[in-house]
Amino acid sequence: MQSMTEKRCGRRYDREFKENAVGLVRSGRSITEVARDLGVSVWSIGRWVTAANSGQTLGEPQTLAQESPEQREMRRLRQENEYLRTQRDILKKALGICSAEMRASDMR
């Protein structure tokens, strides 16, 4: 069984591997099929295809300076959305704990 750090780290693929994977998708194979055959996540292959279609070099991740204003805003909104979901989940748990304590004290 993998530890949490092993699951989160992921594997690194060189540019040639990514280009070959994108080539397989462009030759007519589905992203799912290529991902399964290469042992790579569908998400990774999809990102590589998107990057290749936008003219981005596959070996280099997009830097913050290369982002358009719309991409920066989307990234900011996604981060804010994740933060608000976390806060909501914490409040739900707290409410559940408080409700359980109130019910327990009413039964006494």
Describe this structure in words.
The chain is mostly helical and 108 residues long. It folds into 2 domains: 12-62; 64-108. It is 70% helix and 0% strand. It is built from 5 helices and no strands. Helix 2 packs across helix 4 and helix 3 (31-38) packs across helix 4 (42-53).
Based on the model shown, name its key terms.
elongated, mainly alpha, 108 residues, single chain, 5 helices, 2 domains, disordered N terminus
What's this entry about, in short?
The chain is mainly alpha-helical.
Summarize the biggest pleated sheet: none
How many domains, in number, for the residues? 2
Provide the low-confidence segments as ranges: 1-8
Helix content: over 70%
Q: Termini, distance in Å?
A: 46 Å
SSE layout:
Layout (H helix, E strand, L loop, with lengths): L3 H6 L5 H12 L4 H8 L3 H12 L15 H38 L2
Helix pairs in contact: 2-4, 3-4
